[in-house]
Amino acid sequence: MGGKRFAVLLCAEDSEYVKKKYGGYFGVFVRMLGEEGETWDAYRVADGEFPDDDDVGIYDGFVITGSCSDADANDAWICDLLLLLKKLNALNKKVLGICFGHQVRELPPKAEVIGWSEKTGIEMFKYGDHMMGIQGHPEYTMDILLHLIDRLVQRNFIMETYAKELKVKVEEGEPSREAWKRLCINFLKGASHDNKITF
Known about the structure:
The protein is 38% helix and 16% strand. The chain has helices spanning 16-22, 25-33, 53-56, 76-90, 142-154, 160-173, 177-189; strands at 5-9, 39-43, 61-64, 94-98, 111-115, 124-127, 131-134. It has a domain at 5-139: Class I glutamine amidotransferase (GATase) domain (Rossmann fold), CATH 3.40.50.880.
């Protein structure tokens, strides 16, 4: 019998930097979450590529990535993604939502907030034992974050002085990435993994 199988539902185009260095965001997620003996597949849901209904059952879990799109938009692919989420929920499939894949205005009645901040009232939530959303980007490596900051400066979205402050924070925050990785793996793959997480 084969190992576990997971699908990454890609909700954005890959940046040129991430394509060149990691083979795209699919590669970033597999590096972070993948383990020997597992199969990982990618679906570019933002381009309308979804798993067939018959294939949904073969997966042990799904990861929904970040996106520049508005999670509340009525784009066809977002509506299709919501339908898929309802199916995954009905099947009790593990679903890890990252940023865009997490965004909700209000939680459904059975959901529980498990992380919050002054800026965001719902940093993390869980729905039963099979769905978890994280507002941040635990998949981002330090080099991806630093490159993203540089791109924001180049496009005049942020000022150079603010970019310097952000880079200092990124460099100070790097050690917690391993804890985020373990948290995501433990959630997706269950209790057989080490549940001791220290931030």
